[in-house]
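Shall we go through a protein fold together, starting from nothing but its sequence? Label the sequence line and the structure token line clearly, so we can match residues to local backbone shapes. Would you write everything just below, so we can both look at the same thing?
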Amino acid sequence: MARKEGIEEVTARKLAGAVGCSTQPIFRLYQSMEEVQAEVLERAILFFDEFFDNYPKSQAVPFANLGLAYISFAQKERNLFRMMFLSENRNGKSLYELLNGKQGNVLKEINKAKAEGCEDPQGLFMKMWMFIHGAACMAITGDYDLGITETVGQLVNAYRAFR
């Protein structure tokens, strides 16, 4: 429901209708809709981690695979992206924590940049993150029409320019 309609459309009545019950069983399991939405967010975080883990890692340039996966997630999962990365309500998690995931996605890229001789890999990540996040935001509004080849080119050029 959150994937198709957005988290704001996940209401007790709609959830009960989708499950085929009254709202009472929902409120036996959860004390409030905020608790339900927190659970939905946690499941979305796990979904993003899986999405990222399964996304092809074909680029050698640091942050390129991260950018490709993040932009692709925004394009394919607009409502989950909005809920996770464009909302203030993230169950106390920072954007960095969401992006880094359980596998240390960001940290791996920072270490890859450091191994390439980058003197300030954390600073480079911040510049790349602004670029990547901006592209992903353009994707969910329909303003991003670059294919994978062009996106890779932009990410590589940004990496080289920021480095």
In short: DSSP finds ten helices and no strands in the chain. The mean pLDDT is 95. Residues 42-162 form a domain with the Tetracycline Repressor; domain 2 fold (CATH 1.10.357).
